[in-house]
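Practice problem: predict the structure.
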Amino acid sequence: MEDSDLLKVRLEKIAALKTAGVDLYPNDIKPENTTAEIFERFGETIAADLAQLTDKFSLAGRLMAVRNFGKAAFIKIQDRKGLIQCYVAKNILSEQDFSLFKKLDIGDIVYVSGGLFRTKTDELTIEADSIRLASKAIHPLPEKWHGLTDIEIRYRQRHLDLISNPQVREIFHRRSRIIKLIREFMDSHDFLEVETPMMQPQAGGAVARPFKTHHNALGQDFYLRIAPELYLKRLVTGGLERVYEINRNFRNEGISTFHNPEFTMMEFYLSYATYTDLMSFTEELFASIARNIFNKLTFTYQGQEIDLTPPWRRLSVKDALLQIAGMEPADLTDYERAVAFAHKAGCNIRPADPLGKILMAIFDEFVEKKLIQPTFVTDYPIAVSPLSRKSDSNPDLVDRFELYISGREIANAFSELNDPADQRERFVQQLKEREAGDDEAHEMDEDYIRVLEYGMPPTAGEGIGIDRLIMLFTDSASIRDVILFPLLRTKQG
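Answer:
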């Protein structure tokens, strides 16, 4: 039947139910059990023992399948925990309940109560002695009830995706579990969870293009935050020496399988520590998640085995460009040679870009996707790190690492720049780059410099992309698979 024909049949059934005085949307449904609870208690109980039970069970869920035999039927009901079979028979139900059952549709939410038994195929089943309509579904489920595969519908109508695909529900259950594990880990290390502003008068804390909004009452423009960094470091200066935040960031950039303009990040700061301390801390965090999820430190992501066993590889930007990108030592220090290499490779660079940015453009093109096993990339150019502390051994570099797994950046960390004079010079350089056409460069933030002038303790900070982390631990190919409602272009027509 076409969808329009199915809808017509459903509307006729709705009219018949109303005529019969059936409440299509009652508010007194109180199920006492879940599918998971029933299977946990009786999943291994044999038929003879079930026959001795006098217990009655009740649950509510979506009607997902019906095998009708006229005066009896087997149905499948799906609640938040799973799927269970129920047996519905005319000689068991009241005449009123059986008449109601005959008017139900796939997709309706129903309430069933009864005892347990096993069928001839040994399937644990509820023998329904009563059935009620809990909520009437007007529209039929897509592709009947055999699962939703259309990617466009799945992302645009996530409710249908969750109804139809149990593996999708499992991804978001695991997402919640992983975030809970992260919180438990941070709390166990004496970190304080905080919340900082989503709307900020200046877009700071990262190199990115912001979303702009306007506050009518204040008559002032604000920016959706690109990072919580500068506010979290205010808290560190205020004496909150270990803080973390798990929340949204917004960056006005392209959409891809790895990028969503609205994304979740954990950012945290640890006083009296350096970026090298955060390497072992990150190894410990990721390993604790893997042990909890997989009971081991190895797992498969998109067909490749990932091994989180510490210690992880450490590789400087310089060595990565020499060993993986195929650059020559002179290319790393000679501006013209670096530009020529970048142009030949098709890298997207600007005429005014400093050498450090050009080298990182080459890194992005050649190196990033080849870093499959966990790798800390270190010794970044100062030109791409306006908030990082200068290296004591080389003032052209900063104390920073980025963590790469399976060819993508998962985390970014550095020893924080807490010298206000140095920070001002970095902001001035960023302003010059903005004037040269780089609209992602950092703006001057006088208030933040003033904060540093009160003295911020030596501190290391890190940001971890939660969505990408979830992708890794759920074997998801696209970031849209781990965000319940990813940003999509408005559908036309």
